[in-house]
Amino acid sequence: METRYKFKCPECCSDDVAADGPARWNVKEQEWELVDLFDSPLICGDCGYESHEFDHVPVTHGFRVTQEIFTPENAADGEAGSHKTLGRNLSLRDALELVNETRTARVDGVQGVELSASDIAAAGWITVYNGMEYESGAHESRALHLPDWMTAASKRRVAQLMNAT
Description:
The chain is α+β, with helices and mostly antiparallel strands. About 15% of the residues lie in helices and about 35% in strands.
């Protein structure tokens, strides 16, 4: 699969970046087509920042959800338990549904929700810690991994949706 890139504003991290150049009307397609780009600065559509030096970063599309399971046997042996990825490149809606599920309905509720870092801008994931499963005694946690392109404000809104603030 071909890696796609986007321009990212170094001031506000927005990817709403514009360039200036002449366009030509395409009669067949009934739309304007860019013919060339002027050697003028790029402009951020969100904050108005202008520069020739915008970040050029790979596009990462979605959210990732992981799961860890700690059993009484793992704890007795001093082991961390099992870890697996439940979904990749998910929409926020799908990722939130998946992170809020549990592997069994027989669980003692949610015990806590925690950011991976105290500074929201540095947070890479948000973990939901589920209570003990009644039948196995295991504890499950699920983490919503935040894409690199998310701004601190967007991370804060997701954290609020998950009651992690």
